[in-house]
Specification:
Layout (H helix, E strand, L loop, with lengths): L7 H14 L8 E2 L1 H8 L3 H13 L3 E4 L3 E4 L4 H25 L2 H19 L7 H18 L3 H9 L1 H12 L5 H17 L3 H26 L36
Antiparallel strand pairs: 1-3, 2-3
């Protein structure tokens, strides 16, 4: 791989970030600054700068004269991410129940039908990256349908963290893609029926299962956490009630193009 653009640091950063997201680089792995520079056919300086930026974001630890240590999610990180995501996506599906368009509803149906066909009907090993893309489209369609631009921006700011936890959840067991597709279908049916309570419960349940499976995967692949246990409090936010005025879309609506 050879980089010729001016912003070498940004290109190295993006390459490393993608490898962290798809778990080409795994928790506890020590990356060599020299080896990365040779692979990317660049000097070590942009590699070091990219690593320092990733360190600020909590992805790695740069250790002078040793290398770049990949850092996994802590249990507290995982819990915090899912608490915030669950609150935001329950709000999104609640608003979408009132305001989703026919076109958006059709996108959801087709997305989940494809998921069910690919992952429920086959015994082949799942294509996790493909499912992550499909999963992102599913959740983004609901978020856009909420009509709340600020909500969309808040979730977008968490996108990389959400993808990282999603990969952990999917890797927890081979059947997880098919299970997630079934959970998505329950959400679709609730949206079709304009059943706000069921839609919120379905989203709550789906994200709760994602949390538990991601927790299980991290626990099994991080020996130092073997003594840890699942938090006793429930992450799902079932029954969350919003004042009527919060169920209306904001004036700055978002339209899918």
């Amino acid at each position: 791989m050879e980089y010729k653009n001016q912003s070498l640091q940004m290109q190295v950063y993006r390459t490393m970030k993608q490898r962290l997201l798809d778990q080409t680089y795994v928790n506890g792995q020590m990356l060599s600054e020299r080896t990365l520079a040779a692979e990317l056919q660049i000097s070590r300086t942009p590699v070091r700068r990219a690593a320092l930026q990733l360190q600020k974001e909590g992805w790695v630890q740069y250790i002078p004269k040793r290398g770049i240590l990949v850092k996994g999610l802590s249990m507290q990180d995982l819990k915090n991410i899912f608490q915030i995501r669950t609150a935001l996506e329950i709000l999104a599906v609640r608003l979408a129940c009132k305001h989703i368009s026919a076109d958006q509803m059709e996108v959801l149906r087709q997305t989940v039908q494809q998921q069910l066909f690919k992952y429920k009907q086959t015994q082949a090993a799942p294509d996790y990256q493909e499912f992550i893309r499909s999963d992102t489209e599913f959740h983004n369609t609901i978020i856009i349908a909420s009509g709340n631009l600020m909500l969309r921006r808040l979730i977008e700011e968490m996108r990389d963290k959400i993808k990282r936890t999603g990969i952990n959840s999917l890797y927890s067991r081979r059947s997880r893609c098919a299970e997630a597709a079934e959970e998505h279908w329950r959400i679709v049916r609730a949206l079709e029926n304009k059943d706000t309570h069921e839609a919120c419960q379905a989203m709550d349940s789906h994200l709760g299962i994602c949390y538990i499976t991601a927790h299980d995967y991290i626990l099994r692949h991080t020996p130092a956490l073997a003594a840890d246990t699942l938090p006793t409090e429930s992450l799902p936010m079932e029954g969350m009630i919003l004042p009527p005025e919060l169920e209306e879309p904001v004036s700055e609506a978002v339209h899918e193009h």
